[in-house]
Amino acid sequence: MNNEEFFDILKKSFSKYIETNARSNEKLKILHGAIAEDLHKKLSNTSNVNGNYSVHSLGFGNGREVGIAGRYANKTVDIAVKKNGNPVAGIAIKYVMSNYKQNSNNYFENMLGETANIRSSGIPYFQILVIPDKMPYFDKDGIIKKWEVVNKRNINKYIVMSNDNVDVYLHAPNKTLISIVNISEGENLSFIDKSCYKKYYTTSPFSITASSKSFEFGNNTIYNNCEGFIKSVVSSIIST
């Protein structure tokens, strides 16, 4: 899956979110399933040489997530990779649609915790974070109170983490993909509430592309390059 195809998958996932609701897992099936399928195809090319791999996720194969035994607790992961029936890697995916800033620290701290739990048991763990560079902030009644713009202050903790030595800091993912995207048109319009917002994206054409925002990440993070990230994940898996 090249980067253009990845952004098209993000668009389809966003559209499914618009059609359903924030709690529906239908949008996850699209995104998680596409990444799992791509990973499966690339790992299949190494089968019979490095072992037999299977990939488990919503939207792919039997459509089920599976658990990985962490050091402290078992964790059902978004995408799990098994080699000859044994877990050898996991990938967590977070696709934020709105209200990012109020939850930003929680997202980050949860990521650190689940990564440490899995990596401390000797299994590589990877993370994907997708966020729009501008997104609505909905209040409890669905009214759009403001538009949140992603800036370096919001991303700085990921920049710091991207320079960590992953062999020392087990809370840092083996590799992280951060994809900051632009969802066209909507940010230039005046929406009153979630209903208007969803109606627009249900009836009007739009695109999702890589954001023009630039950030300097260290070697442990890949920015807006899904194709490069998947290659890195595959390389890590087959080397174990």
Task: Give me some keywords for this one.
36% helix; 240 residues; globular; seven-stranded mixed β-sheet
How would you sum up this structure, described in words?
The protein has 240 residues and is of the alpha/beta class. It is built from 6 helices and 11 strands. The strands form 3 sheets. Strands 1, 4, 5, 6, 9, 10 and 11 form a 7-stranded mixed β-sheet that branches. Helix 1 (3-19) packs antiparallel against helix 2 (26-44). The longest helix has 19 residues, at 26-44. The mean pLDDT is 92.
Number of helices: 6
H-E order: HHEEEEEHEEEHEHEEH
* Number of DSSP E strands: 11
Give the uncertain stretches in residue-range form: none
Instruction: Tell me the major beta sheet.
Output: 7 strands, mixed
Give the helix proportion (percent range).
Answer: 25-40%
Q: Which of globular, elongated, flat, extended, rod-shaped describes the shape?
A: globular
The secondary-structure class comes to: alpha/beta
The average pLDDT is: 92
Strand content: 25-35%
Task: Report how far the terminal alpha carbons are from each other.
Answer: 23 Å
Q: Mind telling me the C-alpha Rg?
A: 18 Å
Please describe the topology of this protein.
Elements: H1 3-19, H2 26-44, E1 53-57, E2 67-69, E3 74-76, E4 79-83, E5 86-95, H3 104-119, E6 125-132, E7 134-138, E8 144-149, H4 152-162, E9 175-183, H5 194-203, E10 208-210, E11 221-223, H6 226-238
Parallel strand pairs: 5-6, 6-9, 9-11
Antiparallel strand pairs: 1-4, 2-3, 4-5, 7-8, 9-10
